[in-house]
Amino acid sequence: MKFFTRKLVKPGDLNANNSLFGGQLLKWIDEEAGIYSMTKLGSHRVVTKFMSEINFVSSASQADVIEIGLQFISVGRTSITFRCEVRNLFTKKTIISIERIVFVNVDENLTSKPHGKSLKDIEQGAIF
To answer: What is the average pLDDT score of the chain?
Structure first.
């Protein structure tokens, strides 16, 4: 698992219980996974297709620094799949895990479109 992004949990990121709001965390994950998909596929036109069960393992509090980790799993004709783990930077305690996040390459009409990348392309030619 490679951890690329770090986020500081600020007051605006908290829920009514003063812990990190799950919706904010999912927004950060979706954004990071989308950017990672773009770098792997060499395309700025990707959309979130699917997220598997989301397992909230522990919480984060104000001033915690979290890091978002993504691991490439597979590539399809139009799609790419990752696994995600978010953890506390200092304690390394897992906050959330998602076994599968799938992104699909699309055209200007948001219709799925083959990305033309092979497994070898994904593993060797990407920015990350």
So the answer is: 94
| CA nearest neighbour of 83 among 50, 128, 120, 41 | 50
Q: How confident is the model at residue 125 (pLDDT cuts 50, 70, 90)?
A: low
Distance CA 109, CA 83 (A): 28
Domains, the chain, ranges and CATH?
A: 2-125 (3.10.129.10)
Residues 4-24 have pLDDT tens digits of: 899 999 999 999 999 999 999
Q: Please list, in sequence order, all residues whose beta carbon lies within 8 angstroms of the beta carbon of residue 8, skipping any fewer than 6 positions away.
A: 63, 64, 65
CA distances from 116 to 78, 79, 113 (A): 8, 10, 9
